[in-house]
Amino acid sequence: MGARILLVEDDPGLGFVIKDNLSVKGYDVTLCVNGEEGQKVFDQKAFDLCIFDVMMPKKDGFSLAQTVREKNQQIPILFVTAKSMLEDKITGFKAGGDDYIIKPFSMEELFLRVEVFLRRTAPTPATEDVFSLGKYTFDHSNLKLVHDKGSKTLTQKETDVLKLLCLHKDRVLKREDILKSVWGEDDYFMGRSLDVFISKLRKYLKEDSSIEIANYHGVGFRLEIKEG
């Protein structure tokens, strides 16, 4: 059986269609009809990916995501919603979501997003310490960022921040998670330091316009590399 997916959708028709289509693709899908049921099932079983509707009875998708994030920081969470306002997306990211898919959507779009998330979160060798970033090579162990125009020696903090971004590429990495991981604490002054480090990393990576460290205001940062 393939990856285990927790699907929480209160519309029985849509829930059945999504589950049926994902099952045909080989995924092991558990369907719940409200947030409370979804939380109970998540506590009882292990999953590789969560797909949550936003507007649900008893416990909405945002609240469910917050509960899941308290127990698991790594599992991808994809929101299925009719909401497309920026404020709603920010709320979802703050709740711990990784991405949105807006209704109505095609099954092909859903398949692609599921495949991308599962590929990104697949286990990687613990010894992996060299990352390919567009036209750059980032060597974490040796504190080196290499480009064909030369190399840059980074500080340990710069290296640690960039590695976190690389490990979570194309996913929003929360500010507090970076601060706790790199600085050991999350406070205002450390937050200002993080902003300085992000600015420096953007400057170091400026030779490749396909690389962007996007700022999700009030939430965190996401390392994005556009494919040419």
Q: Which stretches are low in confidence, meaning pLDDT under 50 for 5 or more residues running?
A: none
Shape: elongated
Number of distinct helices: 8
Strand order of the largest sheet: 2-1-3-4-5
CATH topology-level name of the largest domain: Rossmann fold
* Main pleated sheet: 5 strands, parallel
How many beta-strand segments? 12
Task: Give the structural class.
Answer: alpha/beta
Q: Could you tell me how far the N terminus lies from the C terminus, measured between alpha carbons in angstroms?
A: 35 Å
Give the helices and strands, then pairings.
Layout (H helix, E strand, L loop, with lengths): L3 E5 L3 H13 L3 E5 L2 H10 L4 E5 L7 H11 L5 E5 L4 H10 L3 E4 L4 H14 L9 E4 L2 E4 L4 E4 L2 E4 L2 H12 L5 E2 H8 L5 H17 L6 E6 L3 E6 L3
Parallel strand pairs: 1-2, 1-3, 3-4, 4-5
Antiparallel strand pairs: 6-7, 7-8, 8-9, 10-12, 11-12
Helix pairs in contact: 2-3, 3-4, 6-8
Structure description:
The protein has two domains: 4-119, Rossmann fold, CATH 3.40.50; 130-225, Winged helix-like DNA-binding domain superfamily/Winged helix DNA-binding domain (Arc Repressor Mutant, subunit A), CATH 1.10.10. It contains eight helices and twelve strands. The chain has helices at 12-24, 35-44, 61-71, 86-95, 107-120, 156-167, 175-182, 188-204, and strands at residues 4-8, 28-32, 49-53, 77-81, 99-102, 130-133, 136-139, 144-147, 150-153, 173-174, 211-216, 220-225. The strands form three sheets. The chain has a five-stranded parallel beta sheet with strand order 2-1-3-4-5, with helices on both faces. Strands 6-7-8-9 form a four-stranded antiparallel beta sheet, with helices on one face. α2 (35-44) packs parallel to α3. The chain starts with a strand and ends with a strand.
